[in-house]
Amino acid sequence: MSVLIFVELDEGKIKKSSQEAIFYGAKVAGMMGTAATAVVLGEADSAELATAGRFGATKVLHAADPKLNETNGMAYASVVAAAAQQEGAKVIVLAKSSLADAMAARLAGKLKAGLAANVIDLPQLGDSFRVKRSIYTGKAFAETELTADTKILAIKKNTITPEETDATASVEAFSPALNEGDFGLKVTNTEKATGDVLLPEADLVVSAGRGLKGPENWAIVEDLAKALGAATACSKPVSDLDWRPHHEHVGQTGIKVSPNLYIAAGISGAIQHLAGVNSSKVIVVINKDPEAPFFKSADYGIVGDVFEVLPRLTKAVQAL
Amino acid sequence: MKILVCVTSVPDTTTKITFTDNNTKLNKAGVQFITGPYDDYALARAVELKEQTGASVTVLNVGEADAEPVIRKCLAIGADDAIRVNADPVDAYFVAEQIAAIAKENSYDLILMGRESIDYNGGQVHGIVAEMLGIPSISPVMKLDISGTTAKMTREIEGGKEDLEASLPLVLGCQEPIAEWKIPNMRGIMTARTKPLKVVEPSSRETLTQVVSYELPAPRGAVKMIPADQAETLIQLLRTEAKVI
Ligand SMILES: Cc1cc2nc3c(=O)[nH]c(=O)nc-3n(C[C@H](O)[C@H](O)[C@H](O)COP(=O)(O)OP(=O)(O)OC[C@H]3O[C@@H](n4cnc5c(N)ncnc54)[C@H](O)[C@@H]3O)c2cc1C
Ligand SMILES: Cc1cc2nc3c(=O)[nH]c(=O)nc-3n(C[C@H](O)[C@H](O)[C@H](O)COP(=O)(O)OP(=O)(O)OC[C@H]3O[C@@H](n4cnc5c(N)ncnc54)[C@H](O)[C@@H]3O)c2cc1C
């Protein structure tokens, strides 16, 4: 009857968001008087998988079939469903991501499970099973009761801060029969930036808008991001104009982020932009217009020219 | 080729959300309802495919009668006909069951949805429907071309994108830049009035989630302004006061 946690790797390491999911899942398991089991798909280093123990998992099921190296939501859902069945898991936890979303939806269909997306707090257990989820793109929360027997919780980044111990998890091979029908998609090409901090995973984000005037000026944004170890992001017009790749576009119709720090440079703060970033812990706004709406949603503000302010901030970070 | 486009009727992106009835209902007063922006991308691509290949485009909404203006607008943009499942769409699984039931009856080659609704942001209806139909689902799709029974797509992944191929039928969750949003023209608006809009009752009633109450986020504290010529102070404050770096 364990709580099952779907864990993702990036470049061979457990993703930060998955560490949060494990810690969250272990807390839920504690509340329910049961253990937390992680499930990992695709080839991976067992020593790395054992580190799931640091965040509270007692066991890791490892489905190492090389066919699962390709991230495939359909095949992943079948394997996670098999793991849930083996473990008798009625609660499945995962951190929101493009892969986890695709997997979780299929899993909900398979298991007829109630799926709560963008969960932002630990559940309330009692006569019912309730979670708080973020809705209207961060403009509100809905206290939601999950009435199905099986529950899937997709947690939003920064829902919980993991505390680490030095425990290790036992790693068990898990080899359910794979379903041919799940492999009907053919990936013909993949383009992925390597070495950069992934935007949805980032604790710190430096974002810039049309105030930067053109793509040739992005070095000052990237320099600050690099000094901080932050990911870069942008407003919608910036990606529409092809100044930056689409996967950096944040907001209502882009990536939703909730980092510890969101720095917005040369972004006016339109409501659709705010919707995707308003659950960031701390927001810094740099804009030359003191009337820019974004200042109303900021914690710290600088009225100034980005071309002067950003390099000064970079220097100050480098001097730390 | 038969295309089904599933659309939501959602508060305009500029809406200030508030609740009534002791925080148990959305306050609809003064709220302008629009087609979900992602659904609009799906519809726009469907209409382009119709123009290129002669496909038929049916629009489907699970919602109450107040969603009809949004459905009519989709007809004005170029869909051929529409179906409304007459029910309050209170749960993703419930909505998915309605869509799957209609899809089983009419066997579409392509079911296009938005990547996610902008009210409940679940990003799950496409996956659940595809699972119910036993066919592949892909999301978020930012490029789609059809040749014969093969779909060629580009999907966004974290930090990049991926090109994919699959055979129809498929369920896709769409996002920009799959197509440009379309604005209805006068002729579209006129013809939309007489295009068929069929209203059907739900085929099942089961839900798996239920909202108990709503709440608004706590307002942020006052902004602390730092003079531009002392920008370095910000970095100190982020370290010592906000403790985020
Ligand atoms: C349905 C819908 C969905 C949308 N979804 C999104 C979304 O997901 N994300 C999103 O971002 N937008 C979205 N938008 C667009 C949104 O409404 C705004 O148009 C957009 O966010 C503006 O981008 P911006 O702030 O970069 O540009 P602008 O609004 O042009 O602002 C530029 C800012 O830079 C400042 N500036 C200029 N020069 C300097 C300088 N040298 N130094 C300092 N500051 C300077 C200006 O004062 C101004 O405030 C959406 C719109 C619609 C209708
Ligand atoms: C007045 C009102 C009250 C609502 N109350 C609730 C509530 O209490 N709880 C709740 O969970 N939801 C509620 N919703 C409904 C919500 O908009 C969705 O229809 C449904 O819950 C699925 O949400 P999701 O965010 O998981 O969809 P997603 O999975 O994010 O949607 C993905 C795509 O699926 C398609 N789709 C989703 N919903 C529909 C639909 N209804 N008709 C046709 N296609 C659709 C669209 O193409 C959409 O882009 C309400 C909607 C309205 C208008």
Automatic annotation (TrEMBL), chain A:
Signal peptide: none
Domain of life assignment: Bacteria
One GO BP annotation of this record: fatty acid beta-oxidation using acyl-CoA dehydrogenase
Pfam families assigned: ETF, ETF_alpha
Family: Belongs to the ETF alpha-subunit/FixB family.
GO molecular function terms listed in the Swiss-Prot or TrEMBL record: electron transfer activity; flavin adenine dinucleotide binding
Binding site for FAD: 210, 266-273, 287
Cofactor(s) in the UniProt record: FAD
Cofactor details (free text): Binds 1 FAD per dimer.
Keywords, alphabetical: Electron transport, FAD, Flavoprotein, Transport
Lineage: Bacteria, Pseudomonadati, Bacteroidota, Cytophagia, Cytophagales
Protein name: Electron transfer flavoprotein subunit alpha/FixB family protein
Domain Electron transfer flavoprotein alpha/beta-subunit N-terminal residues, every copy: 3-187
TrEMBL record, chain B:
Pfam families: ETF
Keywords: Electron transport, Transport
GO MF terms held by the record: electron transfer activity
UniProt-listed SUPFAM superfamilies: Adenine nucleotide alpha hydrolases-like (SSF52402)
InterPro entries documented for this protein: ETF_a/b_N, ETF_b, ETF_beta_N, Rossmann-like_a/b/a_fold
Gene3D superfamilies with a match to the protein in the record: HUPs (3.40.50.620)
Transcription regulation in keyword set: no
Domain named Electron transfer flavoprotein alpha/beta-subunit N-terminal: residues: 23-209
SMART domains: ETF (SM00893)
Entry GO CC: cytosol
Entry similarity comment: Belongs to the ETF beta-subunit/FixA family.
Protein name: Electron transfer flavoprotein subunit beta
Source species of the chain: Rudanella paleaurantiibacter
